Amino acid sequence: MAEPREIEALWEDFHRVVNMTSAELSAWLKVRDADEETEPLPEEAGTRTGQHVLAILQKRRTDLTDDDVRIMHKVVDTVGDLVDIENEPEPVRTPEDTRRRHRLMTLGHDPLKP
Questions:
Q1: What is the spatial distance between Cα 38 and Cα 18, in angstroms, rounded to a whole number?
Q2: What is the distance between the alpha carbons of residues 95 and 87, in angstroms, rounded to a whole number?
Q3: How many angstroms separate the CA atoms of 109 and 101, rounded?
Q4: Which pLDDT does position 104 carry in this prediction?
Q5: Which of 2, 49, 99, 110 could link 6 by a cystine bridge, Cβ 3.0 to 4.6 Å?
Q6: Predicted local confidence at residue 44, as pLDDT
Q7: Residues in the chain, pLDDT under 70
Q8: CA 20 to chain centroid
């Protein structure tokens, strides 16, 4: 496990980039995976990373595991690569913008959310 200061900084960064609540993320993961003929069980909806982000949102900082820390780094890095947090929200204009937004929402970041 990383040093307490590193964990604290990562915790703050993670919660800065993950701007969806656990309820919003849970609902999005269910909607994302539903289609006309099938729908996964609620606890199985979404990607593994999305489910892990949801689990982290429901934890206290003191309960984090090494795997949680790894996922938090991944999410912070991925969102940071795809988004300029300071200049959001951006309007969705093209199908590519919509795909990008949906990918980010799977990680708990909605670029249209203030």
A1: 28
A2: 20
A3: 8
A4: 93
A5: 2
A6: 54
A7: 1, 32-46, 84-92
A8: 7
Rounded alpha-carbon distances, angstroms, from residue 7 to 14, 50, 62, 65, 110: 10, 20, 9, 11, 24
Phi and psi based region of residue 108 (left: phi greater than 0; alpha: psi -120 to 50; beta: remaining)? left
pLDDT at position 41 is: 52
Count Cβ atoms below 10 Å from residue 25 Cβ, excluding itself: 24
Q: What are phi and psi of 76, to 5 degrees?
A: -60, -45
What is the dihedral sign for C-alpha 86, 99, 25, 80? negative
The pLDDT score that the predictor gives to residue 95 is 73
Q: How far apart are CA 50 and CA 110, in angstroms?
A: 13
Token pair of 31 as six digits = 């909607």
96: left (phi over 0), alpha (psi -120 to 50) or beta: alpha
Which two structure tokens, joined as six digits, stand for 112? 């249209």
- Look-up of token digits 């309960």: 63
